[in-house]
Amino acid sequence: MAGHSKWANIQHRKGRQDEKRGKIWTRIIREITVAARAAGGDLGTNPRLRLAVDRAKAANMPADRVKYNIDKATGNQEGVTYEIRYEGYGIGGAAILVDTMTDNKVRTVAEVRHAFSKYGGNMGTEGSVVFQFKHCGQLIFAPGTSEDKVMEVALEAGAQDVLTDADGLIEVLTAAADFEGVRNAMEAASLKPDVAEVTMRAENPIELSGEDGARMQKLLDALEELDDVQAIYHNAEMDSEPS
């Protein structure tokens, strides 16, 4: 179905993120803080921090603000931040993972559970849906990019797979540990991905049309609005313009 174009869904997601830049910055700062506290402020020895800083640059966060938050995080301030993943089901049984960072686990689980229940989903138990996702590096190139060049560079750099869909979108998959090396190789070959991230990739996407797609988007939006939510992964492919 044309309405379920993966490229259209990616563009739609990027547009929604641009609309919420303030919240995106907050989440990036939280990720920088946790990464720097866990393994120090040196980008050369802390790949998680390096990815967070890359996200900050892509979101046009000023360099001095990035540096300030790294310095602040490595100053051993008091306070504990928990990283917690919640699992659940959306419309039509779609699988959802919700990654959070919080200083109050009781508040966060209550807010996540409320969003699920209010918008037609259900919280699941630990392990209930995570098996439907693969932790991996993902680089996505827009339709029109040379498939032969992407495949040659990606596989030479150690990528696990290169996939092309009916619209011409090219997806490069890597082991999480190999993501940075593959991305650097692609960029050195003047191949700039539209999406480049370590993610939880859905193994078996399901299509949601019309009202179901619109309801699913409302649930995702409600989860996205929660202050403690860092990332949401799901296996729903919805109409680019739900009716």
Brief rundown of the structure:
By secondary structure, this protein is an alpha+beta fold. It has eight helices and ten strands.
Helices and strands, with pairings:
Layout: H1 6-19, H2 21-39, H3 47-58, H4 63-73, E1 82-89, E2 95-102, H5 105-118, E3 122-123, E4 133-141, H6 147-157, E5 161-164, E6 170-174, H7 179-188, E7 195-202, E8 206-208, H8 210-224, E9 229-234, E10 236-238
Parallel strand pairs: 8-10
Antiparallel strand pairs: 1-2, 1-3, 2-9, 4-6, 4-7, 5-6
Helix pairs in contact: 2-3, 2-4, 6-7
Descriptive report:
The structure is a single chain. The chain has 243 residues and is of the alpha+beta class. The chain has a domain at 2-73: Arc Repressor Mutant, subunit A, CATH 1.10.10. 44% of the residues lie in helices and 23% in strands. The protein contains eight helices and ten strands. It has helices at residues 6-19, 21-39, 47-58, 63-73, 105-118, 147-157, 179-188, 210-224, and strands at 82-89, 95-102, 122-123, 133-141, 161-164, 170-174, 195-202, 206-208, 229-234, 236-238. The strands form three sheets. A four-stranded antiparallel beta sheet has the order 3-1-2-9. Strand 5 and strand 6 (170-174) form a beta hairpin. Helix 2 (21-39) runs antiparallel to helix 3 (47-58), helix 2 (21-39) crosses helix 4 (63-73) and helix 6 (147-157) crosses helix 7 (179-188).
Structural key phrases:
single chain; alpha+beta; Arc Repressor Mutant, subunit A; 8 helices
The count of DSSP E runs of length 2 or more, i.e. the number of strands, is 10
Radius of gyration: 18 Å
Oligomer: single chain
CATH structural architecture of one domain: Orthogonal Bundle
- Overall pLDDT metric: 88
End-to-end CA span: 15 Å
What is the highest CATH level, the class of one domain? Mainly Alpha
Runs in which pLDDT lies below 50 for 5 or more consecutive residues are none
CATH superfamily of one domain: Integrase, N-terminal zinc-binding domain
Please state the overall shape, judged from the principal axes of the Cα atoms: globular
Q: What is the third-level CATH name, the topology of one domain? A: Arc Repressor Mutant, subunit A
Count every helix, treating DSSP H or I runs of 4 or more residues as helices: 8
Could you give the order of strands across the largest sheet? 3-1-2-9
Which structural class do the helices and strands define? alpha+beta
Helix content: 40-55%
The H/E string reads HHHHEEHEEHEEHEEHEE
